């Protein structure tokens, strides 16, 4: 007989974080892997995510993924496939899976999560704070709902019997 516990249906997450993109020089954290004109340029990156915009901010994780240029309009449009991998004490090892098409100031969808943030759904609003030289700092306003998973309380067998066909 199986034993189980019922977890809360959903929890809400609201947080403001910051990411730092460095395109060239010391501290580069993204590279172009396909360079196509007028669109199709693809790059991969691992941007540090911090709890504040300044140099004394703490790194709480990394945005890791790819970006593909999907429109060649006056304001370039990119499609992103990202994983926000947390490394801080609260969500250590948990991830938010993020996807979407946006310009620099735009919104992405949270389409899933792992660990403490299992089955997350929500949005990330990205706003450029500074862009100087080869470095951009953006504010990330995260609003998500997730279902905390208690993986340690499931035990036993289902009592199913398998038979040969």
TrEMBL record:
Entry's Gene Ontology BP terms: phenylpropanoid biosynthetic process
Keyword annotations of the record: Apoplast, Secreted
Organism phylogeny: Eukaryota, Viridiplantae, Streptophyta, Embryophyta, Tracheophyta
Origin species: Setaria italica (Foxtail millet)
Record family assignment: Belongs to the plant dirigent protein family.
Protein name: Dirigent protein
Localization terms from the record: Secreted, Extracellular space, Apoplast
Keyword set includes Secreted: yes
Pfam families: Dirigent
Superkingdom of source: Eukaryota
GO cellular component annotations of the record: apoplast
Predominant localisation class: secreted
Assembly, per entry: Homodimer.
Summary of the function given for this chain in its UniProt record: Dirigent proteins impart stereoselectivity on the phenoxy radical-coupling reaction, yielding optically active lignans from two molecules of coniferyl alcohol in the biosynthesis of lignans, flavonolignans, and alkaloids and thus plays a central role in plant secondary metabolism.
């Amino acid at each position: 007989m199986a034993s189980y516990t019922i977890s809360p249906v959903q929890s809400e997450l609201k947080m403001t974080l910051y990411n730092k993109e460095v395109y060239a020089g010391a501290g580069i954290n993204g590279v172009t892997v396909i360079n196509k004109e007028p669109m199709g340029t693809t790059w991969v990156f691992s941007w540090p995510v911090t709890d504040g915009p300044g140099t004394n901010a703490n790194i709480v994780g990394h945005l890791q993924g790819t970006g593909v240029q999907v429109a060649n309009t006056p304001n370039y449009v990119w499609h992103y496939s990202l994983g926000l991998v947390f490394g801080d004490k609260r969500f250590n090892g948990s991830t938010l899976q993020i996807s979407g098409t946006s310009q620099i100031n735009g919104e992405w969808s949270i389409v899933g999560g792992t660990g403490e943030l299992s089955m997350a759904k929500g949005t990330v609003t990205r706003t450029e704070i500074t862009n100087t030289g080869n470095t951009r700092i953006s504010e990330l306003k995260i609003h998500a709902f997730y279902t905390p998973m208690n993986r340690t309380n499931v035990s036993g067998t289902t009592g199913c019997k398998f038979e040969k066909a």
